[in-house]
Design goal:
- There is one protein chain.
- The protein is mainly alpha-helical and about 300 residues long.
- It has 2 domains: about 150 residues, no CATH class; about 160 residues, no CATH class.
- α1 runs antiparallel to α6, α7 runs antiparallel to α8 and α14 packs antiparallel against α16.
- The protein is globular, with a radius of gyration of 19 Å.
Length: about 300
């Protein structure tokens, strides 16, 4: 496979995954601000939404303050924001068009149809209409991802799409955890309080994990158990452990196909082993923020290595 084809497939999947992530951030934030003031605390949840997406500095260059209108516009529709939903879908479609013959008709129809329909949406929607728009984005991503699983050959094209999805998803899950721990909970609240419970529950809803949480732990929502599910549980599709199982497996398949191991395989395998041997108590003892910060840096490093090894 040509490196430019692999690059387009990899970034196509990353941008599709990012569109889903941003839609989930906005959905969760809308839920939080709809709670009574006694449950939501004194933080600006809309600013926290931008921080979770990793775009706070850029946001401040374009807007004077974070509120529902400005954050919705920035994260959903602003073409100047590389991570806005509109931009993610458009860039994904551009990458798909460049390698149209590398994936299936069903995948193209799901993505191209979404791109065409996207033009009918703007920020002048009511909150209820915007909620339906976010549900539409999540359905688009499910349709595209489902088409990939059901129609693609299990060859290098499929493997590079999985790499893109997994590395993006790992970054997104880590950022959700870090922002919750440091930005959402006000200094006057204690871990395990009413506000803390609603915020952790919202995060579980944000990553479609609330039902899974109760299946696994059969307990009330507790921060260390949420972190355990989203970091260490390999059965959870959005957990860091599951993402790195996918990365290690598909990098190994690529190495076998091309008969060449590299740094990417070593990094992914080492990260997977580290996650498999880590206990959540140790993470909290050492600091969740410190763990997540180190993980994001390592994940970015793996992304750079994959790009150098296969995409350039």
């Amino acid at each position: 496979m040509l490196s430019r084809t692999a690059d387009s497939l990899y970034w196509l999947s990353r941008y599709i995954e990012r569109a889903d992530f941003v839609a989930r951030i906005l959905d969760a934030t809308t839920r939080l601000v709809s709670l009574p003031q006694s449950y939501t605390g004194e933080r600006n949840e809309w600013e926290c939404a931008v921080a979770t997406a990793g775009d706070l500095d850029m946001f401040r260059r374009h807007y004077s303050g974070a509120n529902e209108e400005t954050v919705r516009d920035f994260l959903a529709f602003n073409p100047a924001n590389p991570s806005s939903i509109r931009n993610c879908i458009e860039v994904a479609r551009d990458n798909a068009r460049a390698v149209r013959t590398a994936f299936t008709t069903e995948m193209w129809e799901a993505l191209n149809g979404a791109w065409l329909e996207l033009k009918s949406f703007d920020n002048a929607m009511s909150r209820e209409e915007f909620a339906r728009f976010l549900d539409w984005v999540k359905r688009v991503v499910l349709a595209f991802d489902g088409a990939a699983y059901r129609t693609m050959l299990r060859n290098d094209a499929f493997w590079f799409t999985r790499l893109g999805s997994a590395i993006e998803r790992a970054d997104n899950t880590a950022r959700i955890l870090d922002v919750k721990y440091h930005l959402l909970l006000p200094e006057t609240e204690w871990v395990g309080g009413t506000l803390d419970y609603f915020q952790w529950t919202t995060i579980l809803r944000e990553v479609s994990a609330l039902t899974a949480y109760h299946w696994v732990y059969r307990d009330g929502v507790k921060p260390w158990l949420v972190a355990d599910l989203l970091i260490l549980n390999p059965q959870m599709p959005r957990s860091l452990a599951n993402c790195y199982e996918i990365l290690a497996r598909h990098l190994a398949l690529i190495a076998s196909s091309y008969e060449q191991d590299g740094e990417g395989q070593s990094i992914a395998s080492a990260m997977l082993e580290r996650l498999s041997k880590t206990k959540i108590e140790r993470i909290f003892d050492d600091g969740l923020h410190e763990f997540v910060t180190e993980f994001i840096a390592d994940n970015n490093r793996l992304g750079s290595v994959i790009a150098e090894q296969y995409l350039s």
